[in-house]
Amino acid sequence: MAFSTISKLNNGTTWVTRSINHDSCTHRGSAPPRIRLAAAAKSSGGGVTADFEEGHLERPKWTGETPISRLVGALISFKPLYSVMKLGARQVLISTAEKTSIPWRGMTKEILESDVYKEKDSIEDTSIVYPDYYLNPFHAYDEGNLSWLAAAEAEAATMSMVRRAIPYASSLQEANQIVRGNWLQAIENHHLKHSGDLQIGQVLDIGCSVGVSTRFLAEKFPSAKIAGLDLSPYFLAVAQHNNKRRNEGENRVKWIHGNGESTGLPSNSFDIVSIAYVLHECPERAIKNMVEEALRLLRPGGTFAVTDNSPKSKILQELSPVLFTLMKSTEPFLDEYYLTDLEGVMKQAGFANVQTVMTDPRHRTVTATAPF
């Protein structure tokens, strides 16, 4: 049973102190953080402050060349067992979503029975050659991101990720205030501090999937033109379909079928480049290429932001063996991501003012500035 205590201070700030079921494996033995909801946090772009606990390790012990990691790798490489793990991982995602009132099956059915298919023809660049790593199975889909089912389920999966990150939130909206609000606030704070008053007129969302992160960026920066770029024409078709259906600034958001490692877009053409929850799906070579491409695309003083799993997250470091084995079975490049020094890669590429902040209990946001 969950309880929350809400009180208001004289300045209008709202404090929410939430306790959760003591049987929860995520927070067993410790209280959730005390969260301050600023007035701006009532919208999707508002920030939420909290102290998110880091673990004692540099990265989870189930990554890299550790005995646990090698054991998990051996289990995953055994194909009959891998098939069972993949199915189990999928069922965990769906059940987690539906237990928190996210209608996974209903949302998927609505997309698959819509006229979304015609959008793919208008958006797909048939000249694109997909990198080898992108053709791997991801997230329990044999075709990875190149399938209608993966695209139809992506938004529900994203909602589930947010609820899983903030299990003590009373609603998806409150969870988004933390996960999305803190990410957006980190971008805005960095830009205000380091951009030299560069106005935000062009924003690029690399690896935009079905456009969830793109919509949040569009809401946060309402005067900017937004571009969402992704390698999957299926995901982009859903993004464009949803944008038209919801009438959410259709003319202000442009969808681009492209490779984040080499976008083909003009140099020095964006004020913010964001990559949200993408790099953990990439090998190290692709991570380095995307960081270098972001630097090329940004104007001097522009802000680069990456939000993704934090290797130092206490929760991720303390995942149960069953959960981290299931996770690794659907994320073929998770080890490479955790072993990559992302901040070092940014600095080596030429970025300045590289900073990292835990923006929720599972994720970090790394921001940097394109040099003047």
From TrEMBL:
Pfam families on file: Methyltransf_25
InterPro entries in the record: Methyltransf_25, Methyltransf_Superfamily, SAM-dependent_MTases_sf
Family matches, as CDD domains: AdoMet_MTases (cd02440)
Domain Methyltransferase residues, every copy: 203-302
Annotated SUPFAM superfamilies: S-adenosyl-L-methionine-dependent methyltransferases (SSF53335)
Coiled coil: none
TM segment ranges: none
Protein's UniProt name: Methyltransferase domain-containing protein
UniProt source species: Salvia divinorum (Maria pastora)
